[in-house]
Write a structure and sequence with these properties.
- By secondary structure, the protein is α/β, with parallel strands linked by helices.
- The protein has an eight-stranded parallel barrel, surrounded by seven helices.
- Strand 4, helix 5 and strand 5 form a beta-alpha-beta unit.
- Bound molecules: erythose-4-phosphate.
- The site of erythose-4-phosphate has 11 residues, from helix 7.
- Erythose-4-phosphate (E4P) binds next to helix 7.
């Protein structure tokens, strides 16, 4: 499963890139707004840091405007994936932009029926929001499993991007469910590294090594 960082913060992206395990980035209007720069400028900076798919979301909600905004975003860099909300005009814009060879990420997906529409419209990526479904008392991961089954039944090429991930368990379960991509905040990627037995084991290895070799001057 590819790991994407769900942030528009350049410091977090630099730190993630430095580890060598970040495959791409997702942003949304809320994440861009937090950084205080116009979207085109912030996205261009992100493209300089991460060598992979970078999702940039339109803020228009009407078909013609979504398409023109999407075309403009796609011109920023060859790695741009245009993110469109899963509304009627968004699906229509997805069909148009996909037909022009512009890659799209259909976002705010909360049902398998919506995911089916996105795939039929030629979406490159579908983004089901796991955490936000958990927040309202549902099991978000069931949606990933259901979409994976439907896409596999019909051979859809749309990649499933498990979004709104809040924990390491979400990441592991997304991979088990067959998501192609998991997008997560920097702190969740950071947590993927951790296990107390790793730290304890390393401490013991280094102690044993030091005892055997440092006292004899080797
Ligand atoms: C990803 O594309 C979404 O914008 C993101 O994962 C939403 O996450 P949140 O529910 O934590 O805001």
């Amino acid at each position: 499963m590819k790991i994407f960082l769900d942030t528009a913060n350049l410091d977090e992206l630099r730190r993630g890139a430095d580890w060598g395990i970040v495959d791409g980035v997702t942003t949304n209007p809320s994440l861009i707004a937090k950084e205080g720069r116009p979207i085109e400028e912030q996205i261009a900076r992100i493209c300089d840091i991460i060598d992979g798919d970078i999702s940039a979301e339109v803020v228009a909600t009407e078909y013609e405007h979504m398409v023109s905004e999407g075309r403009k975003l796609a011109k920023i860099h060859k790695h741009i994936v245009v993110k469109l909300p899963l509304i009627r005009d968004g699906i229509k814009a997805c069909k148009t932009l996909s037909g022009e060879g512009i890659r799209t990420n259909v976002t705010l997906c909360f049902t398998a029926a919506q995911a089916l529409l996105a795939a039929k419209a030629g979406a490159y990526i579908i983004s089901p929001f796991v955490g936000r479904l958990d927040d309202i008392g549902l099991t978000g991961m069931d949606l990933i499993r259901s979409i994976a089954k439907i896409y596999s039944n019909y051979g859809f090429k749309t990649q499933i991007l498990s979004a709104s991930l809040r924990s390491t368990l979400h990441v592991v379960e997304s991979a088990e469910a067959g998501a192609h991509i998991g997008t997560m905040p920097f702190k969740v990627v950071d947590m993927l590294f951790n296990h107390p037995l790793t730290d304890k084991g390393l401490e013991q290895f280094l102690k044993d090594h030091a005892k055997a070799f440092q006292s004899s001057g080797q």
